[in-house]
Amino acid sequence: MPRGIVAAISTYLASRGWNIIDSAPFHDMEAGCFFTHVGFRSEEGVGLEALRSGFGPVAEPFWLRCKLSNGAQ
Predict the structure, then answer these.
(1) Please, are residues 50 and 68 in contact by the beta-carbon 8 Å criterion?
(2) Which Gene3D superfamilies match (predicted)?
(3) Which range marks the domain in which residue 23 is found?
(4) In this structure, is residue 16 part of a structural domain?
(5) Nearest-angstrom CA–CA distance, 65 and 45
(6) Can you give the CATH number for the domain in which 44 is found?
(7) Is 58 inside any structural domain?
């Protein structure tokens, strides 16, 4: 498993004014997969679409499959 996945995600969120309020990472050793749920809120009014559009370069080096959704909906 590549190192730095959690750091890359948290750095990206913080750099865009989002605050992590919940995180639940899990590494499945047998399957060789890493899973995480990260709950976050914008402290600067940044929209979810703006966050989505810039996340590709963060996800790509780790081959991440991501689902970014609005938990309030």
Answers:
(1) no
(2) 3.30.70.260
(3) 5-62
(4) yes
(5) 25
(6) 3.30.70.260
(7) yes
- Unique residue bearing structure tokens 């080096």: 61
Q: Render pLDDT for 4-62 as a digit per residue (tens, 0 to 9).
A: 999 999 999 999 999 999 999 999 999 989 999 999 988 888 888 888 899 999 999 99
**Sequence-ordered strand ranges (E) for the chain:** 18-28, 33-42
Q: How many domains does the chain have?
A: 1
46, two tokens = 């940044």
Give residues with Cβ within 8 angstroms of 32, minimum separation 6. 1
Does residue 44 fall inside a structural domain?
yes
Q: Full-prediction pTM beyond 0.90? A: no
Residue 32 lies inside a defined structural domain of this protein: yes
Angle, helices 48-59 vs 5-15, to 10°: value is 150
Report whether 14 contacts 37 (CB < 8 A).
Answer: no
